[in-house]
């Protein structure tokens, strides 16, 4: 079936994997990637597919209402998969404003434009909003987030994502806009910007820099391989019930310090260093303000209703991720030049 769909934030980490999957799998779709190319957006993530006839890129700031409206005039989308966001908790603590603008106002601009467009195709319309498990708050050492867990966001990032989820549901209720939302746990894999824990640790071990572990490293995250998230997005976009929310997770909880130690041992082996040598780089630094203790997701609804499950074990995913970063030194070198050094210095320089 012919469709014209918008994927926002397609030059970022998760978005680039979603774009690649859709461009390769759905040759009848016109897939438009709208991205403002912030520090986290990199068209170099898409060089293998950017000449495909069913792919188009438009540089659009979703905060710019006129630009969003012009984009919808040009393409008359029947579907939107919305990933564009400011996504890093630490940056939201030092400068929340961008999070309010992009994550809340940007989402509202897209919702309003989608509400007002008359689509070109007859496909059922859908606005699919990609969100995070962080909207549910923080768990102690027991229980899981379900789709019924009340929202309790605790960082400027998670509060801005929670607001955007609420706006999506409000547009669904008020204007009868068909929508779905998914809330996913922490992703890892190729192309993740090295401000996040896993790629930052890989990069620091490689260059023998200290590995900053916040607090005592006791915080727990559930990790999902990014291509399994892209597969979940595919199935939810095509088979999800409008108005529903789906939790996505890896059923794969790790205490940060255990994860960092695991990465040290993988990297020692891959780099031919003495076993245990990278662990000497571990440095406990001042804790993140308001640091959520634990995230853990119950994804049984998605598994039972839509038949999705993670396909990659954590061991396989970590091997693939480390191999990718070691094989893509140029990608990493480009990313960590310029602004990244300034960010790193401000973030970790005086800890
Ligand atoms: P990312 O930071 O790697 O990429 C975000 C992309 O959005 C970048 O390409 C950036 O250029 C673009 N963007 C930012 N502001 C924009 C604007 N004003 N206009 C247009 N484009 C803009 O993020 P990610 O990790 O790929 O996350 C993608 C989505 O998934 C986000 O909505 C995030 O909240 C959600 N999410 C992420 C995770 C995770 O672990 N990374 C987990 C669950 C949900
Ligand atoms: P991060 O990758 O920033 O994801 P999120 O905050 O969205 O979960 O961080 C994952 C965990 O690792 C989180 O508990 C914070 C911690 N962390 C560190 O200990 N050191 C670091 O340098 C970073 C970036 C994160």
What does this structure look like?
- With 351 residues, the protein is α/β, with parallel strands linked by helices.
- It has a domain at 3-188 and 223-248: Rossmann fold, CATH 3.40.50.720.
- It is built from twelve helices and twelve strands.
- The protein has helices at 13-25, 65-75, 89-94, 97-116, 156-175, 197-206, 226-239, 256-271, 300-306, 314-327, 329-336, 339-348; strands at residues 3-8, 29-35, 55-59, 79-82, 126-132, 179-184, 186-188, 211-214, 220-225, 245-248, 253-255, 282-285.
- The strands form three sheets. The chain has a seven-stranded parallel sheet with strand order 3-2-1-4-5-6-10, with helices on both faces.
- It is globular.
- The chain starts with a strand and ends with a helix.
- The mean pLDDT is 97.
- Bound molecules: nicotinamide-adenine-dinucleotide and thymidine-5'-diphosphate.
- Nicotinamide-adenine-dinucleotide (NAD) binds at residues 9, 11-15, 35-38, 40-41, 61-63, 83-87, 102, 106, 130, 132, 161, 184, 186-187, 193.
- Nicotinamide-adenine-dinucleotide binds next to α1, α4, β5 and β7.
